[in-house]
UniProtKB/TrEMBL annotation:
The keyword Oxidoreductase applies. It comes from the Bacteria. Residues 1-32, 134-166 are annotated as: Disordered. Residues 22-126 form the Aldehyde oxidase/xanthine dehydrogenase a/b hammerhead domain. Keywords: Molybdenum, Oxidoreductase. SMART domains: Ald_Xan_dh_C (SM01008). It comes from Streptomyces prasinus. The lineage of its organism: Bacteria, Bacillati, Actinomycetota, Actinomycetes, Kitasatosporales. This is Xanthine dehydrogenase family protein molybdopterin-binding subunit.
Length: 694
């Protein structure tokens, strides 16, 4: 911490940085517990059917094996709200990779070897894992993820499109995508008498504790769930996953501590994925570029286990002024693993499609794509009619254009080549909603002049404990190094998960309030503090969850320069530059990391990441990091993330919007638009791998 004045906004270094790089930070599998055993799940090898027999004799005879849990003898649990957690409760196999047995052994190696020796027999049923836009089982759900209505209509979109002088009617496809955090989903569970202690890799342990209490019939005050350090999640650790349920079951069976660390190859079927989305977008505009009609129809899949609807048509309700519109989601339930949240669910695939279609419309109009966006700026949120609390997309586009050097661009496709390389540039907008949830927090002043802030926030690698310390120091009027922040333990004051880019806003609000209250109490006091210090509490229930009269969203603009090799079909991103308007930025260092991390993930979505459903086996073909290609350093150029100072009084005491997800939103469109500019060819099926481009 350098400089004077408020610590808010300063590029403070991560408080746990030293611990992480020296190995002192403990992750869920790394808590030293004497006598700890290790468990390895046995995944179903059929896509649909029933387990008819499990022969564990050979596995039990192997060295180090303690027990094997099957659906016949695993501890019974109450019916979970999330049916993906009902593991080892019955013989049904709803998709390939569903857990059908769990081997517990002294070491991970012995558990893995024994898992391979478990013999499972099945009654196999026909399966269907193929998503098609004309699937006979397709239906319109009531709501999509996030509680969004599945369908919204305004005016007469069909009429408006029919009479529009300029039209685009186009289709895009985003494949299944996998979260693949560096640290796989891992849980260590230990029953100590009637107390349960769990170390888990989760985005929020308040939820994990509540879930385990319900499933195992144990009061919450006898359960402690910690997640002190988490190696990423990207949504896939937003809710408890089977690893934590299996670990608790196994620990109950053996009586000692048990770790379940999901093997990388089991993640795609077990922890959720971004569901594939098929998009049809129609845009109608006047010759001046003003939109008159828009339809965005999304078809996506979910499993037989649970309805999850990727809300990819939702951003079209936010972005552009258009009097006649329809945004619609339809779903096909297939024998596939259950999809779930992956960084910017809805917005990431939806804005790929919408921002690609806007680029196509700009081409039809012969209009600069930035200008097209400017003429369609709404003065209110199109769907709700609410005023925006703040919306600086125009400034992001203009500032980005200046920084990127957009002026003087030759708009003609395929107009620039360097030897075998075709060079192009593209632009796209970004948006992400401002979400916030109630939280509690505690702040304490100690006689030695230091402060302790306690809150069950989760730092999944974002720098949450650092930024919360800044919020606290700011509200206390204290230097940063006087404040210690405890997070990642369900015994701390309860707090919502690190998800929906809502963590800092939600936690920060209660930390701010607790610290402001403490500062007041201290100001009213005279004399030395008592030994136990002075404590203040805050609970933002009823305020952080109140409906706002404003439409609240962050916005941004991405600019990409790509090269396309005419000989190999290889697309490379040369430059990626984005400008965001996301309220007040609370830590310039960790915010930049969030932005460029999201942009890198968007680059992966554009060029390298994609999963394929093997129709014969009914499973994802790309199940490890050798086949599912996340971008590596050599794929990623210098990335620039900038932001404009945005003051918005309608958010929270810090004035911040979420920043964790917006970086991935629209990035793939900017890159795809640059590829179109380079080649003159519009590719509409991600990722843009050489086999498609050549
Ligand atoms: Mo994020 S996909 O809401 O963790």
């Amino acid at each position: 911490m350098t400089g004077t004045g408020s610590p808010l906004g300063a590029p403070a270094e991560r408080r746990e940085g030293r611990q992480k790089v020296t190995g002192g930070a403990r992750y869920a599998a790394e808590h030293p517990l004497p006598g700890r055993a290790h468990a390895w799940p046995v995944p179903a090898t059929i896509a649909r059917g029933r387990v008819t027999a499990v022969d564990t004799a050979a596995a039990l005879a192997l060295p180090g094996v303690l027990t094997v849990l099957t659906h016949e003898d695993a501890p019974r649990i109450a019916e979970p709200d999330d049916p993906t957690l009902a593991v080892l409760q019955d013989p049904r196999v709803p998709h390939r990779g569903w857990c059908v047995a769990l081997v517990v052994a002294r070491s991970p190696e012995e558990a893995r070897a024994a898992a391979g020796a478990v013999r499972v027999e099945y009654a196999v049923e026909e399966h269907d894992v193929t998503l098609r836009a004309d699937h006979p089982g397709m239906y319109e759900p009531d709501t999509a993820n996030g509680g969004n209505p599945a369908r919204r209509e305004h005016g007469d979109p069909e009429g408006a499109l029919a009479s529009a002088p300029v039209r685009v009617d186009t289709a895009y496809r985003v494949p299944p995508l996998h979260n693949h955090p560096m640290e796989p989903h891992t849980s260590t569970a230990h029953w100590q008498g009637d107390r349960l202690v769990v170390h888990t890799s989760s985005q929020g342990t308040t939820t994990v504790r509540a879930t385990l209490a319900a499933l195992f019939g144990t009061p919450e005050d006898r359960i402690t769930v910690t997640a002190g350090h988490v190696g990423g999640g990207f949504g896939s650790k937003g809710t408890p996953r089977p690893d934590v349920v299996l670990a608790v079951m196994a620990a109950r069976r053996t009586g000692g501590p048990v770790t379940v660390a999901l093997p990388r190859r089991q993640l795609p079927t077990t922890v959720g994925h971004r569901a594939p989305t098929l998009h049809r977008i129609r845009l109608g505009a006047g010759t001046d570029g003003r939109l008159t009609g828009l339809t965005h129809d999304v078809v996506t899949h979910s499993s037989r286990v649970k309805e999850f609807v990727e809300q990819a048509a939702v951003p079209a309700r936010v972005m552009y002024a258009v009097p006649n519109s329809r945004t619609l989601h339809r779903l096909v339930r297939l024998d596939v693993p259950t999809p779930s949240w992956m960084r910017a669910p809805g917005e990431a695939p939806g804005m790929y499609a919408l921002e690609s279609a806007m680029d196509e419309l700009a081409g039809e109009l012969g209009m600069d794509p930035i200008q097209l966006r400017l003429v369609n700026e709404p003065d209110r949120e199109p769907d709700s009619g609410k005023p925006f609390s703040s919306r600086h997309l125009t400034q992001c586009l203009r500032d980005g254009a200046r920084r990127f050097g957009w002026a003087g661009r030759d708009p003609r496709p395929r107009s620039h080549a360097e030897g075998p390389l075709l060079v192009g540039t593209g632009v796209a907008a970004a948006t992400y909603p401002v979400l916030v949830a109630p939280s509690t927090a505690e702040a304490r002043a100690l006689p030695d002049g230091t402060f302790v802030v306690r809150i069950n926030a989760t730092d999944i690698g974002t720098g949450a404990r650092t930024v919360l310390t800044q919020v606290a120091a700011d509200a206390l009027g204290a230097p940063l190094d006087r404040v210690r922040t405890e997070v990642g333990d369900s015994d701390l004051p309860s707090a919502p998960l690190a998800g929906g880019s809502s963590g800092t806003a939600s936690w920060g609000w209660s930390v701010h309030d607790a610290c402001a209250r403490l500062a007041e109490a201290l100001a009213a006091r005279t004399g030395p503090l008592p030994e136990e210090g002075v404590t203040a509490h805050a609970d933002t229930t009823g305020r952080a969850d109140a409906d706002s009269p404003y439409a609240r969203h962050a916005f941004g603009a991405h600019f990409a320069e790509t090269t396309v090799d005419r000989v190999t079909g290889e697309v490379r991103v040369r430059r990626l530059l984005s400008v965001y308007a996301a309220g007040r930025i609370l830590n310039a260092r960790t915010a930049r990391s969030q932005f460029i991390g999201g942009m890198t993930m968007g680059l992966g979505m554009a060029l390298t990441e994609g999963s394929t459903m093997d129709t014969a086996f009914g499973d994802f073909t790309e199940s490890d990091l050798a086949s599912y290609h996340v971008p590596v350093h050599a794929d990623v150029p210098g990335i620039e993330a900038h932001w404009i100072d945005e003051e918005d009084p309608h958010l929270n005491p810090m004035g911040s919007k979420g920043i964790g997800e917006i970086g991935i939103v629209g990035t793939a469109a900017a890159i795809g638009n640059a590829v179109h500019h380079a080649t003159g060819i519009r590719f509409r099926d991600l990722p843009l791998t050489p086999d498609k481009v050549l």
